[in-house]
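In response to the reviewer comment on reproducibility (Comment 2.3), we provide here a single inverse folding case reported in full, input and output, so that an independent group could reproduce the run without further information from us. The structure tokens appear first.
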């Protein structure tokens, strides 16, 4: 006769086996649901701990990992991520951020195309893709307000229950969703205000300058200085209009009048490849200025130095600098950026000329199997934009 304890043990083992089998089946179904869905985008940079969660399953994200319309993407402490979405949008997620991608159906020719996301914690900066430009639905929800996007560059950050907003370019429409608040307003360069804070209780504060929370990577207006939008708006009028500006505010041609990206005479012989196909690894210092066409409005230049660090594992540019001296004093600029789909997305964080504040733009492209950086640069004084530096460059490793 079988003992009662023996039967109990067998039943326990059977229950554990069934539970495990159900768990494995559930996991397999969840993974199948993710892998069979159409991706909403892909990861182009993941620093530190970056995860995607769908149906209770967590996937660590790294460069080129897909993200899906059912994903909740989160970054850990001292972490950050850049996502390139299917419509071309770039999402830059800060540390301690949680973003739910609830819907990302994109077809520029389809009026039913919609994007719905929810910022649950932290902050993000977004350069939107094709949807807002075609008048189709694009919405970001937060605990205190929903944001309808008609612009191309905006920023949102949750801090202690308050929502900080910036409409850098284009227009964002905000609907405060706190019960009883019933406030609607818009932010952007063509609106009365570009910056605002929606408090946790639903009250709204409009700001004439960027909140201090947005200081990292931005050009701030200092007390007593004229207000400029920096790299997020069109540059000031040029004294010399012979060198055109591109629609994004980046110099389209170098000081010699050659377009670095479209002129076949310049790019001939250089192997330009998609950023996703680059196979280099590690961190590389491009600190040899092998050629340039820089021209300063203040005359001849001396002591020219330029360098750029590229982290191929994390797909970003952690540091870059430029310095030289002309008759007006020393030009100095620092910059950083991330990998875009075809080029380096770079931003100037601080610049000066002598005792004057400066601003500008920089762009770059990896060439020759990522053995060199081809780019162009423009700097100008804020108080006197006619005092400037323009030109192109090629950076390589030390020979």
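Designed residues, in position order:
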């Amino acid at each position: 006769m079988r003992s009662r304890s023996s039967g109990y043990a067998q039943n326990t083992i059977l229950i554990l086996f069934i539970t495990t089998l159900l768990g494995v089946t559930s996991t397999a179904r969840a993974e199948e649901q993710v892998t069979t869905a159409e991706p909403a985008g892909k990861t182009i940079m993941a620093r530190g701990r970056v995860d995607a969660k769908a149906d209770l399953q967590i996937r660590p994200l790294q460069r080129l990992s897909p993200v899906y319309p059912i994903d909740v993407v989160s970054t850990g402490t001292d972490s950050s991520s850049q996502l390139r979405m299917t419509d071309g949008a770039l999402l830059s997620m800060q540390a301690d951020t949680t973003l739910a991608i609830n819907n990302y159906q994109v077809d520029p020719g389809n009026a039913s195309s919609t994007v719905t996301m929810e910022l649950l914690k932290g902050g993000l900066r977004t350069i939107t893709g094709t949807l807002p430009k075609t008048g189709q639905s694009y919405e970001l929800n937060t605990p205190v307000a929903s944001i309808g996007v008609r612009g191309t560059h905006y920023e949102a950050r949750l801090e202690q229950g308050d929502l900080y907003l910036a409409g850098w370019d284009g227009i964002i429409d905000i609907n405060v969703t706190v019960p009883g608040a019933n406030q609607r307003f818009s932010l952007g360069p063509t609106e009365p205000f570009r910056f605002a804070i929606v408090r946790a209780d639903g009250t709204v504060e409009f700001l004439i300058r960027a909140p201090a929370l947005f200081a990292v990577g931005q050009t701030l207006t200092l007390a007593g200085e004229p207000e400029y939008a920096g790299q997020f708006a069109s540059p000031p009028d040029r004294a010399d209009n012979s060198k055109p500006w591109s629609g994004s505010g980046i110099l389209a041609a170098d000081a010699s009048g050659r377009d670095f990206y479209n002129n076949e005479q310049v790019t001939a012989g250089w192997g330009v490849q998609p950023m996703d196909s680059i196979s280099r690894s590690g961190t590389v210092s491009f600190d040899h200025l092998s050629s340039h066409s820089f021209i300063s409005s203040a005359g001849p230049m001396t002591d020219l130095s330029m360098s750029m660090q590229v982290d191929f594992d994390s797909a970003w540019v952690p540091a870059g600098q430029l310095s030289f001296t002309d008759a007006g004093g020393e030009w100095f600029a620092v910059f950083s950026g991330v990998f875009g789909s075809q080029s380096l997305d770079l931003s100037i964080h601080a610049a000066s000329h002598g005792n004057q504040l400066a601003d500008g733009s920089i762009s770059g492209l990896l060439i020759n199997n990522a053995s060199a950086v081809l780019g162009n640069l423009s700097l100008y004084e804020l108080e006197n934009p006619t005092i400037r530096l323009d030109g192109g460059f090629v950076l390589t490793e030390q020979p």
